Amino acid sequence: MSSKDCFKTLRHTPFWEGLALLIVGGASQVIPLYSLSFKQTKVVKAPKDSGPTRVKVACCRFVVKLGGWRQFLQKVIGWLCRRFLIMGVITSVYGFLSFKNNWHQRYLALAIAIFIGLLWFLCGFPFYGRRRLQPSPLLTMMRTMIAALQKRHLNYQEHLDQLHRHCGEDQNQLLTDHLEMLNNAAVKESLADDNLPTGNWRLCSVKEVEQSKLLLDLIPMSATFIAYGMVKSLGNTFFLEQADSMSGDIPIIVLQVIKGVTRNAVKGGSKAVFAKRIQRMQRQYSDGVKIGIGMLNSIICCAVASSVESKRLEALRESGLLNDPKARAPISAAWLLLQFCSLGATEGLAGSGIADFFGHYVPDSRRYGPVFADTLAGFGILLNIGFIAMINYYSRFRYKESWVGDSVNERHLDLIYRAYVILAILNCFLYAYVSSSYSYDNIIGKPEDEPEIPFLEVKQEEETVAYELQSIPVR
User: Fold this and answer.
1) DSSP string covering 416-443, please?
2) What is the torsional sign of CA 324, 243, 234, 309?
3) What angle do CA 377, 379, 380 make, to 5 degrees?
4) Inter-axis angle of helices 413-437 and 286-319, to 10 degrees?
5) Rounded distance, CA 309 to CA 24, Å?
6) What Pfam families does this protein map onto (predicted)?
7) Euclidean distance between CA atoms 464 and 411, whole angstroms
């Protein structure tokens, strides 16, 4: 079936409605999931002279340090998340192997699992502490730019005594000369500006202006992360088509699990092996080095994929099946293990490095770090469509044939992967230039060093619990 016939068939099905719901659900889960898990148990550092305390949870007794109760809860939540993740992977693999071609049974099993998870989530709803809403860094940046544009006729250096600062902010903080066209946003034009509501589009504080500058400085560096999203999307598109067109008894879900295991192993190993050594020299460079190694690994991933695809096409040619669009190559899918492992290593290095980079440099609310990382990966997926269209246009213009066919056997995936190798190499050079000229002095800190955002409802109860824990002696 051609791509046009496929779209005509999908037009009369609820596929597009389901796709829209999937996109909305995936986009809306990042911030709440992060906030309701580890942010609910934000670590408060204990005093150096604090002693251990015996705590009873259900029928078990634990010894924790004074002030480390929330850190203990964080470890428990992390342990439970890992166990549920392992159970989910096992269930997915079992369902995939059991229901083979019965997709409706797979979706039914997923729907039941999601419904059970929703019920479990609602059971704990009374215990979730509500946090005060924090302003979005992007919204603050837009407010600053619009306010500065409205006051472009002013010279902030002539109104240094009329700068606006919110209550609770550093009243001695000064404006820097960097991106000084934004400094006018903090200038009060009259005394009536003091009565403007918080979050208005006419006046910003000095702190908001400086935070907006930090966010604008991230744009050149962030642009180099988009190519990572383009390479990452190959694992959900062309890699799967390759696996489906090769012989062997290795299911696609097994290859994806191997990629996920490799990603987590490399992510944890990078922190244990070389990240600490880099931090001894200069801590803020660790994120950039990890991203750079991940981008170099993306070159290897695409090169390996091109080599495996050339071998697959050669096997089809020797068997006389190259002109059959539905033929399976007489070559084992085990050849794909290396490229899936390489892609997992790329995600473990570059993906986690990008998330940590935004966690260290995004002003204030670090819960937006995963959102920025996923957004750039999404941009990479969208640009992938344009990149494939460019390759198709180039192949038709230069070689009078299309490299992008209707089936995997009619495509020249080996040549497409080589184009991705060239793209990854160019992006590595661009990243090396941008990262070497980027100022790492504006690091805000690690997420665990961020001051705790107080609860609205349970703050007083937490103080009472802390007092009770302090009064329990250890025998």
Assistant:
1) HHHHHHHHHHHHHHHHHHHHHHS-GGG-
2) negative
3) 65
4) 170
5) 35
6) PTR2
7) 67
Query: Beta strand 329-332 with 60-65: parallel, antiparallel or unpaired?
Result: unpaired
CA 228 to each of CA 204, 297, 436: distance values in angstroms, whole numbers, following the listed order: 35, 10, 19
Q: Give the count of beta carbons closer than 10 Å to the beta carbon of residue 333.
A: 24
Position of tokens 């244990």?
272
Helix (H) or strand (E) run with residue 450 in it: none
CA atoms within 13 A on the CB side of 193: 18
Contact 432, 289 (CB under 8 A): no
Residues near 207 by Cβ (< 8 Å), separated by ≥ 6? 165, 166, 169, 170, 173
Taking the C-alpha atoms of residue 280 and residue 286, their distance in angstroms, rounded to an integer, is: 10
The number of C-alpha atoms within 13 Å of 244 and in the hemisphere containing its C-beta is 12
Q: What is the pLDDT of residues 223-282, one digit of tens each?
A: 999 999 999 988 888 898 888 888 877 888 888 889 999 998 998 888 777 656 555 545
Question: CA-to-CA distance for 162 and 175, rounded, in angstroms?
Answer: 12
Contact 407, 326 (CB under 8 A): yes
Task: Provide the CA 272 distance to its chain's centre, in angstroms.
Answer: 21
CA separation for the pair 270, 9 (Å, rounded): 46
Average pLDDT, the chain: 75
Q: Which two tokens stand for residue 74?
A: 């964080």
317-366 pLDDT tens trace:
888 887 888 888 888 888 999 999 999 999 999 988 888 888 777 765 45
Smallest Cα–Cα separation from 117: which of 93, 94, 76, 87? 87
User: At a CB cut-off of 8 Å and minimum separation 6, what does 181 contact?
Assistant: 148, 152
206 neighbors 173 (Cβ within 8 angstroms) = yes
* C-alpha span between 383 and 428 (Å, rounded): 17
Burial 404-441, CB ≥16 within 10 A → b, else e: bbeebbebbbbebbbbbbebbbebbeebeeebeeeeee
Token pair, residue 167, equals: 């209550």
With contact defined as beta carbons under 8 Å apart, do 372 and 222 qualify?
A: yes
222, HSE (Cβ side, Cα atoms, 13 Å): 20
Choose among 140, 175, 141, 136: nearest CA to 158.
175
Report d(CA 262, CA 115) in Å as an integer: 30
The domains of the chain, with CATH numbers, are 29-132+455-475 (no CATH), 137-215 (no CATH), 224-452 (1.20.1250.20)
